[in-house]
Amino acid sequence: MTRPVIVAANWKMNGCLSLVDEMTASLAKVELSENTRVIICPSFPYLASFASKQIDCNLNANIALGSQNVSEHEKGAYTGEVSTEMLNEVGVKYVIVGHSERRSLYKETSSLVAHKVAKVLNAGMTPIFCIGESEQERETGQTNTVLASQIQPVIDEIGIENFSKIVVAYEPVWAIGTGKTASPELAQETHQFIRQFIADVDLEVAKKVSILYGGSVNAANCKELFAQQDIDGGLIGGASLKVDEFSHICSAV
Ligand SMILES: O=C(CO)COP(=O)(O)O
C-alpha cells in the first residue's frame, strides 16, 4: 500500500501577509514528487489571502489549505469562533484538531476533540487529528496508554470505517518547539504502535491511514524521519515559517 507523503505546515500564531506572499511564490517554484501532498495552515485572517494566492500563483493541485482549529458548533452566538461552513467557503481542505497546545492551553478534552473530528469530516474536509504524550508520561511508561486514550474516542465517534479518511499527527509534547526531535527509531516504534492499535480494530484501515510525525522537524532531519515505514510525513511548526527551509523540505521528500 503506497500512502502519500504529507508535509503540513502549522504556522501557529505566527506569520503575516507578506509571509503568505513569499511562501506561495516559493511553493510555485518547488518541484513536488507525484506522491507528495503539501498543506499550509496559517492563522484564520490569512486563509482567504492564501486561497487567492493559490490561484494567482497557479499552485500545484497537491498544495492545499488548512486551518489550525474550528468550532464544534454549527453557527450562532459563539463570539470569536469559526465554523466548518466558513472554512469551507474560503477553500480550506484540512483542519488541525486537538493540537497539544489546544488540549493543554485551552483545555480541549479528548471527547471534544473527537466531536470536532466528526464535525470536520461531515463538512467534507479532512481532520488532521493530533495526539501525543508529555515528557512525564513518556518517562513513566504511559505513552501507549495515553495515545490509546486519545485515539479510542475518535474511533467511537466516527466509526472505524471512517478512520482512514482522517490524517493522524503524532506529536510528542516534549519534542514540540524544543529542538529535541524523537529519534527516527523512537518515532517509528511509536508510529508502529499507533498503526497496530488501529489494525487491531481493522487491518485495511490501518494500512490506509496516514500518520504524520511532528516535533522539531527540519530540513536536516525530515528525510530520515519520513523514510521510516510507518511515518507518512510531518506536521511542521518552526521550520514551516522559513520559506527556503520549508520549500526545501517539500521538494526533498
Ligand atoms: O507543534 C508542532 C506542529 O504542529 C511542531 O512544532 P515544531 O516543529 O516547532 O516543534
TrEMBL record:
Database matches in InterPro entries = Aldolase_TIM (IPR013785), TIM_sf (IPR035990), TrioseP_Isoase_bac/euk (IPR022896), Triosephosphate_isomerase (IPR000652), Triosephosphate_isomerase_AS (IPR020861)
Pathway connected to this protein:
Carbohydrate metabolism; erythritol degradation; Carbohydrate degradation; glycolysis; D-glyceraldehyde 3-phosphate from glycerone phosphate: step 1/1; Carbohydrate biosynthesis; gluconeogenesis
Q: Which Gene3D superfamilies match?
A: Aldolase class I
Pfam families on file: TIM
Q: Which UniProt keywords apply?
A: Cytoplasm, Gluconeogenesis, Glycolysis, Isomerase
Name the family.
Belongs to the triosephosphate isomerase family.
Question: This protein is called what?
Answer: Triosephosphate isomerase
Its source organism is: Thalassotalea marina
